[in-house]
Design goal:
The protein is an alpha/beta fold and 284 residues long. The chain has one domain: Vaccinia Virus protein VP39 (Rossmann fold), CATH 3.40.50.150. The protein is built from 14 helices and eight strands. Strands 1, 2, 3, 4, 5, 6, 7 and 8 form an eight-stranded mixed sheet that branches. The chain is globular, with a radius of gyration of 19 Å. The N and C termini lie far apart (43 Å). The N terminus is likely disordered.
Amino acid sequence: MAPIRLAAFTLILALLGCAGAARVDPGLAEAVAARSAEDRARDGARHPAETLAFFRVAPGMTVAETLPGGGWYTRLLAAYLGGEGTLYGVSYSLDMMALFSWMSPERIEQARADIAAFDDTVAGYTDNGITARGFSFGEVPTDVEGSVDRVLFIRSLHHLSRFEAQAQTLTRALADTRAMLKADGLVGVVHHRAPEDAPAATAKGDRGYLKQSDVIAAFEAAGFELVASSEINANPKDRPGPEDVVWRLPPSLRGADEDPQLRARMEAIGESDRMTLLFAKSGQ
């Protein structure tokens, strides 16, 4: 291991020994430390080692990552799950994509192509032989049903919630999630957290934030039960007002490009306050 990665690995192990820290196996700590400096730069806000340990992810598992996006978690999961593991990238349904005003038919076709190329994307991240496959909610392959150990919703619930009243997008996604999981499978959630006293209209997902109680209620209605919650990803500095969007904060810093003082204030807050929840199928 290169000296800089060895130092990072040693630091992670030391931090994980602190009181109250999640227990992380050395293999996961090593996978976290071995990533690029660009990916590791966000670890202080996103706590990937503690988060995956809390979700009880282990090498060799079959994991479905929802809305993999730019690949920040995908790269870590692919490395950690290893050649015996399987990683699915699960995107929004194509009919949901059409609900976004900025999604042209051409962009939807590109999204379709990106979903189909998920295996190639993962192969570009690692040559460890992991099995990878992409598909959308609403199009879960029959051979995937009942085969998944973990489904991860990491900052990917807000648009599903946003269009729920219009198209039952969250209800449908959670039904697909339940169908994908093994009987003993688990669902991990990390999401931007709105204050519980926030007006309901400001916490439906269009601003990025959701109330923790609403997320729990949605999962319970879909046939899940809360197993555990954690403050791993909490940030007490983030107290959004009714008009605040989550993208005002790092790394997006929306609206702060030409306002150094605003940028400084947002950077002082840091990334969003986030709930971290673990669910199992109810009645199992």
